[in-house]
Structure formats: C-alpha cells, structure tokens
Amino acid sequence: MKNILGVIFASALLIAVTSCSSIKVSDIASPNPDYRKQALDVMASDKEPAQYFGVFMEVLEKDGDAMARAQAAYYLGNFQHKPALPLLIKATEDSSVFVKQEAVWALGEIKDNSALPTLLTLLEKNSNIEVRKRAADGLKKINDPKAVDGLIEQLDDINQTVAYAALQALKVITKQDFGRDIKQWEKWREEQPKGK
C-alpha cells in the first residue's frame, strides 16, 4: 500500500510541476534541473532573447544536468550566436551524447568555417551515428569546398544515413552528383584547380 501511495504522490507532484506556468527567468538558479530547463525556454521565447545568450553559454559550460546543457546548445545554434562557437566546439567532447548532438547541430546552424575541422573529425571518427549525420549536415550548411575530401571518404560509411548525408552535402557544395561512386568523385576532385 505504501508503494502505491508513493507512486500516486509522485505522479501528482510531477503533474503539478509540469503544469506549473509560473516558471520565471530567475528559476535558472533553481537546484531543480527541470525548472532550469523551463527557465531556458522562457528566456528563448522572450521578445529579446539576445539578452540571455550569456546565460545559455554559462549553462552549456557549467550546468550539471546534461539535458540543460543540450538545451542551451540548441538555443545557441537556433539563435546563431557566433560568440558561442568555442564553447560549442568544446561541447562536442561532452560526456553526454545529447549535448554532443545538439552542439554539432548548433555548429552547422551558425555556419562558420572555423567549425570545419571539428565537424570533419566528428564525421570521420565519432562512433555515434547521429553525431556523424549532424556533422555532415553541418558541413552542407557551411558549404565550404574544404570539406569535400572528408565528405567523399564518408560515402562508404557503414551507416546509410550518414553516407546519404555526406552525399547531400557534396551535392550542395560541389553542384555535382556522382551518387555514391567514390571513384567518380575522386576523379572529379583531381580535375579541379588547386586551391578550390
């Protein structure tokens, strides 16, 4: 009976917490990670969210809750906050795969060439399929010819989703389409003038 009452109480408390619409920006200091995440949502929906970009960066760098860090990375990318690039690059090494995924996505949204080395390394070496796919998507958004060689190498990725994302990035960057024929891509690449 005690366990049933505990489950009922916990369920009622969860409903009360999630239906609470009185979350404020100041709840970012709450010890409760759910309140902090909701406070981030409040900040992001503000008419002037730029005033909170520093808070998003601090959460990404220091919050103990992985989902709060991932959410902060998402908002920094969503608002294309370029000063967050070094933190987002660092966050691609986070212990949480969710933070990594959002950080990689955010780098693509910001579309800055300084993220190329990080995205290329993640595309080639990261074991997580979603991280590799997002890295290819990010390279497509940045649209820099320096990514072509790395993308060609991933056309034979063991995961079809990653290989497809690499192909889509190549098509956007090069305006060519040789499908997943690596030899054709390499031949085309060799025919290009040096420095392109």
Query: What helical percentage do the residues reach?
Result: 55-70%
Order of helices and strands: HHHHHHHHHHH
Query: What's the helix count?
Result: 11
Low-confidence region ranges: 5-20
The major β-sheet equals:
none
Secondary structure tally: strands: 0
Separation of termini?
Answer: 72 Å
Tell me, rounded to a whole number, the average pLDDT.
90
Proportion of residues in β-strands: under 5%
Structural class: mainly alpha
Rg over CA atoms, rounded to whole Å, is: 21 Å
- Gross morphology is elongated
Topology summary:
Layout: H1 2-19, H2 33-44, H3 53-62, H4 66-78, H5 85-91, H6 97-110, H7 116-125, H8 129-142, H9 148-153, H10 160-174, H11 182-191
Helix pairs in contact: 2-4, 3-4, 4-6, 5-6, 6-8, 7-8, 8-10
Report on this structure.
With 196 residues, the protein is mainly alpha-helical. It has eleven helices and no strands. Helix 2 runs parallel beside helix 4, helix 6 runs parallel beside helix 8 and helix 7 runs antiparallel to helix 8. The longest helix is centred in the N-terminal third of the chain and has 18 residues. About 8% of the residues have low confidence.
